[in-house]
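[retry 2/3] Putative oxidoreductase: previous attempt timed out, resubmitting with same input.
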Amino acid sequence: MGCLKNKVAIVTGAGTGIGRAAAKLLAADGAKVVLVGRRAEPLNSVVKEITDAGGEAVAHPADLVDGEQAAGVAEFTLKTFGQVDILVNNAGFSSKVRSVKYVQPDEWEAVFKVNVEAVYRLTQACLPDMLSRGEGTIITTSSMAALKPGVLGGSPYSAAKAASLNFSNGLNSELRASGIRATAIIPAEVNTPILDGRPAPPDDEARKIMMQPEDVARCIHLAATLPVRTVIEEIVVSPTIPRDMSAEMEIASKAGAPS
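[retry 2/3] Putative oxidoreductase: success.
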């Protein structure tokens, strides 16, 4: 392999789930990876996994609710490695209350800060370097909730992920002639820690038939490793076997209702 040798990648939400799996795949192909997340401990654990396997990675704890910290990830990366070739906007956050009838402004705003504002701020901060070299890949993990919104994903999350999807499409429209390519990954249910925040978290049997983090990470890897002449604009992926979500949806529709 090694097709990403001398490339530098940023992966947000890299301590667990899709981000962790994607960071390991990119590093295995030779990329130097900056791992971003709120908590240092899981990031350092992934750094160790990567370096033990012969790769190169550094941890950069940052709270992406704060737009300044999000933009600062690019500054850190440029100071550390001198360039940014691949940005994976993977960090996600969902509200505990899902129904538009009950969700409060603070939860709504937090969802948009992580899923939209952080994506915009970090992407914008990476663009000068990418544009100066005429090449850059920006991969954003959206969600099936962007295409099929509902109470299980939640009103704030569905709206925010639709915004991140359109942001990605807008990057292609505006900047592809300058060598910037943008990919939106649109997965349905994936067995990641974000599911633990649902009003009714899926049980072990349900999680067995879901996609796993490494499945979506392979989509990210594909978008990052294709020749620069080619861009995958969107990848939509979902579990092969459907499952009954009606009971979980009923609980989600009532979460946050006045007692």
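[retry 2/3] Putative oxidoreductase: DSSP finds eight helices and seven strands in the chain.
[retry 2/3] clearing retry counter.
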